[in-house]
Design a protein that fits this description.
Blueprint lengths: L1 H5 L11 H11 L3 H13 L8
Helix pairs in contact: 2-3
C-alpha cells in the first residue's frame, strides 16, 4: 500500500488503452490483457518486467 499511496504504483482504467491494445493484440497474436501493458507503455514509457 505504501507504493500505491506514494504514487509509485498507479491504477488507470483500461478503457484509456483498449483501442490501441486491441490493435496490438490482433497484429501480434497476443491477448488483449497482455497488450494493455504494451499500449500503456507506448504512452507512459518503458515497460519493465521481472522474471522470478
Amino acid at each position: 500500500m505504501e507504493l500505491f499511496d506514494s504514487g509509485v504504483i498507479a491504477l488507470e482504467p483500461e478503457r484509456y488503452y483498449l483501442r490501441d491494445a486491441l490493435t496490438i493484440a490482433l497484429r501480434s497474436g497476443i491477448t488483449v490483457y497482455d497488450s494493455l501493458y504494451v499500449a500503456q507503455a507506448t504512452v507512459k514509457g518503458p515497460l519493465l518486467t521481472c522474471k522470478v
